[in-house]
Amino acid sequence: MTQTAPAFAEPTDGVAEAPRVEYLSAAEQFMLSQARAGNSRALRQFYDGHQAQVRGHLYRLLGPDSEIDDLVQTIFARAFIALPTFKGNSTLSTWLYRITTNTTHNLLRQRFRRGRVKAAFSWWLSGRAAQLQASQSDVRDEAGRVLQHLAPDLREVFVFYHYEGLTLQEIAQILDKPLSTIGDRLTRARKRLHELVTAT
Amino acid sequence: MNQADDNLPTDGAARYGCLEAHEDAEFAVADRLHPAALVRFRAHLRGCSDCRRMHALMDAVYRGPDPAASGVGIIRGDREFAAILRRVPHERPLPWPQRLLHTSGVVALSTTAAALLLALLIKPGEHPLEHVPHGGVTASLGSPSAGPGGAAHQAQVDYGRVIAGRGFLSTRGDGPPVLTDTFTVGTRFATEPGQSLQVGLLGRILANFEAGTEIEWTQASPAALDLTLERGLIAVRYERQPDDPVLNIHTPSALVRVVGTVFTVEVDAEGHTIVSVLRGEVEVLNPEDQALIGEVQAGYRFDHERSTYTDVGRTEVRVAMPLSNEGPGHGDVVRSADGTIPASWVVPGLPPAASLRRLENILTPAPVPEPRERPQVARSDRRHTSSLAAAKADDGQGLIDKLVRDAAETRREEGRAILEHCKSLYQSAQSRYLSARCLTRFMAEHGDDEDLVEGHLLIGILRMDFANDYPAAKLAFQRFLERAPTHPEAELARYRLWLANIEHGDVPGAVERGREYLRRYPNGKFAGKILQRFPKLVSEL
């Protein structure tokens, strides 16, 4: 991960380095410079340009969830605060994915821990019910439930790779992990999903 | 066994069971299965319901959920963006001394005093976003270039116009009165009983101040426009584009945040705020911490003091009616108000039929202004008598010419009468919005008459002031100037053409029109207004 500045870092005396140009278009650089100065129109432009990405990713990661709107607000608030620390070592969307992951990771872990027993029971029930009815929407719901049984670390990698279409290198950059770790997690995620699906 | 199965090795097909199907499922979903194996896989699915269901589930897992609702509309987006800005101060990480205090806890009680001292001594670094107010509704940092739909030039943002009606305008702090129809930020408006005042801001906001209203325009920037309503009742129509400023109306007890709608705000005698929405949605915020107090949807009247919602009433609709620019019309027909409550306004109890959407059909009792009757042109008996007399005297070509002349004169008189009627509608602030329809009909019937070309000018002014339809207004002004370049009102038309350009956001066009005006009328009565917004044009004098 080359983007080393943490998402919640303090601004460096209010004066940030100019972002590197290779990942940013001229329009993005201009927008970024305005947004860093606190220009609300530029901040709005940033929000408009990326809110669908963030919201979509959260939906894919968490499924239909009442907290998605709240998380979107938190993520953008943190992104606005962290804008002065963005050095331009990645694209804006990659940087935003990282903030999204940082924000949601703990939530995912908490939910996974707390809901393990409950989920296992409901999983058994839904598995029984699935024997009786398997319409298209049921299959989609069941797929969502299957995904929720994946450990957070594995789920993040699976969602990034299969749903967001990111490369392993990009995922490694977002999660700040070695490439081999990402590859290993993806393999484990697939294997675990295969077990879950075939067990139903 | 079907045709496909016949092409496979018999021994392989015989060995292909559920175990093999499970192993191949992931490859099949990812489209990475060998074609021959895919045939065997599909053949197995046809005969095995469990594997078929497993495959459907695997396919759904790899396809993922469809975030169909990943986008948000302009209103919801505005609300969410404002909430994000409100959240920024809360999400800010604590300065490291405070963080240290939080994490050390009881472990380092002995060092607490020192850490506290350190925390007090070290001042947290100032952040640019500190200046973004809660809610972001009044954020106006930097001077960004305007995007599409945004305010293009400060000359457009900082100035407003009186469109109709009467009221007292003065500069901030009970300063000198404003004597022209153009005003700037900091202007206070007061309407006495029996008066009402309609003003335009930014070229997109049309506001109607009812009698007994006191209000001040306190701030304008490409991000936000702020009005402070001290008492009275106002109606506002704001056709907001995505990059346009947010309109904030401050009252003694609330902040009404508008993202594009038709609504009224009232501060009653006790200083309570009442917000009614006819189209769109507004948010009512706490003026101190910008916390959301209530969202008012179209068709509702929100009483801030009592926190109650009721249906909008006749009074609110009546106050908003002069802002109406909608009427029955289809296709290319220019729509203009005819006194019908627009279909887009939500007024509970009113049926959708246009003929029934009238003010008098709203149940709330309220005084309604008497509708004006269209004047009938009384034919002159004398002219008839004289025509008959001429007919008796001459039954040849002279008679025909005389009848043609009389018919033309009668038609012209009819035209003048209709024009006068339209002008009388135009004169009153309460009925001016109805004159657009009257004039449109008039121009359709008499538009080719050189003597009645003034209608183009009036239509242009109305399209500009009430419909914010600047292209149509410019076209009307140009038609007027083409047909009557030496008309006494040509100067007004040229000024209006300049004004339409600037309010439409076409600053280069406005500069060009302003230059043209100053060249023609160096001592014209509007020259000062043009120079006020574009001082550089003084070189044209």
Task: Offer a quick outline of the entry.
Helix content of chain A is 72%, strand content 0%. Chain A has 200 residues and is mainly α.
Structural commentary:
The complex is a heterodimer of chains A (200) and B (541). Chain A is mainly alpha-helical and 200 residues long. Chain A has helices spanning 26-36, 40-62, 68-82, 92-114, 116-132, 136-148, 152-163, 168-175, 179-199. Chain A has a domain at 1-114: Orthogonal Bundle (Rna Polymerase Sigma Factor, Chain: A), CATH 1.10.1740. Chain A is globular, with a radius of gyration of 19 Å. Chain B is extended and about 110 Å long. In chain B, a hairpin with a 6-residue loop joins strand 13 (281-285) and strand 14 (292-297). Chain B is 41% helix and 17% strand. Chain B has 541 residues and is α+β, with helices and mostly antiparallel strands. Chain B folds into 3 domains: 3-63, no CATH class; 154-322, Jelly Rolls (Sandwich); 387-429 and 431-540, Tetratricopeptide repeat domain (Serine Threonine Protein Phosphatase 5, Tetratricopeptide repeat), CATH 1.25.40. Chain B has helices at residues 3-6, 10-15, 18-29, 35-47, 49-63, 74-91, 96-104, 109-121, 154-157, 314-320, 381-393, 397-427, 432-446, 454-465, 470-483, 490-503, 507-520, 527-533; strands spanning 159-165, 168-171, 182-184, 187-190, 197-201, 205-209, 214-220, 224-238, 246-250, 255-258, 262-267, 273-279, 281-285, 292-297, 300-303, 308-311. At the A-B interface, helix 2, helix 3, helix 6, helix 7 and helix 9 of A face helix 3, helix 5 and helix 6 of B.
